[in-house]
Amino acid sequence: MKKLKTFSCSFSPRQFFWTSLGILLLATLLRFYQLGNIPHGMTWDEAAIGYTGYAVFTTRRDEWLKRLPISFWSFGDYKAPLAIYINGFSTFIFGMNLFAVRFPFAVAGVLAILGMILFLRSFLEDIEQLSPSKARFWAVVGGGFLMLSPWHLHYSRAGFESGMALSFVVWGLYFWQKFWGKFTNIRNYNENEKYVGWWLVFSVISFIASIYTYHSAKIMVPILGLVLLWQRRLQLKKVIKEISISSVLGGLLLLPFLYDSFFGKGLERAGTLIFSQGLSFVELIKTIGLQTLAHLDPRFIFLGKTTTLRHGDGQWGVLLFTTGIVCLYAIVFFLKKRLSKRKNDLEINGFNKLFSLSLLLIATGLLPAIIGTEVPHSNRSLLALPGFILLAITGLQLISKISSEVIKRSLLGTLLLIHLVIFSNYLHDYYYNFSRESAASFQDGYLEAFEYVIPYEKGLNDKPIVDKIIFTSDYGQPYIYALFARKTNPIWYQGGSLIKYEFKDEVTIGDLERKNTIVVASNEDELLSKNDQADHIVYGSDGSIRFRIYLNLER
What we know:
Strand order of the largest sheet: 2-1-3-5-4
Radius of gyration: 26 Å
Distance between the termini: 94 Å
């Protein structure tokens, strides 16, 4: 009987390069395919990010004419600035459209996968029992996990700042690990190695960029940074020069954020945390415990429990079932070994580095969502995703250590096959079912409605000019879509550019009698008796009627 070859779990540099390239190409395809159409519709946050980025890029002012702000007022939620500034370049290059708004977030999603591969390779090479070839193999596996993550794909294909912040955090981890890896290998500085401190500088810049991108990073990154420094506390004296330079740079970069936090609106979102809800100490501890369990609830993790389809498709959880299995295996394994006599085994200690980092990233990543007032919240907890990826890699590495080659191959092969089948089913649901079912959550139809009425406002395409456009407010924040679709200069907006528009909470039949007026009504407006008289109907991707448009051109 022919003996099975040992499954080595290793990659040569050539294999690593081409496999990584393949993963990045597939990740690019998955994140850019139909980017401007799926999800169909534009949330008001996407419209705000796109328009404000355009306004700042063209006038150096936001919609309220505040010059180059650090916090953007938007709808009173005071958005972090970096994603908005980056979006200004995108809308300038591609125009004011949904693809342009989502483009930077999709790019950030692909870069996060590249960062994960590089970080894991660098980190795993630091673990004594892993050769560079094995580190390359598991780094590619980690990148593949992130590429095939429903959680990551969802937040890479729409205008969510959390996805961009995640990319900055991953690259911050990579540069941090690269610095210590380079420093450890240096015995005497020479001409070619004196720039090793740049890795630490890049790490500081990346972490701070995440703080300027999304509010969750303001909580996660400082805690993560302090723990990472504590883990290296015995080595800090050896790199005091690099630490000092990076600390000064970090302090300078944080000055605008600190000023805005203490004297502006940078910490306004703190009002949405449970600490500001007037809870007693006992109630606070109880709430934190319950909200932690809510984010570890299998219904949230695997079955798609969510408060809105903006934060998930409602059918698939933030992790695939196979990812959860290997994560759970790693946890059970280490709990068992901690109680056994082998807890000081060198091999277990090596795996323990990866396991400990994964738990650290999960805990700090979930914290912003846990202390929020809306749970479970996949958007605020997205920064925990790298921790789950690392935990899954730990579980797979432990499975690869099984002595029986037949059992090992069977387990790994079965897990891979099931993982790909499940993800394929998820993709089908995402691109076909979710794109229709999420119409209401993504405010579908707004842009189409404004594209129809704008020619009547300005007399374009031989359309008669109307005196008034009455637009329903039933779906929320219609003015921002008007600004986006009209490409309105913020100075003109504050000067009365939308004077022809009247945004109403309730459109009535009486509005239809107003002369030389266009009325844009929703399904919630009581105009059902006029359905057959609508001059134009805007449908959502789910086939439902989103807007009914009535023309009264009589003067």
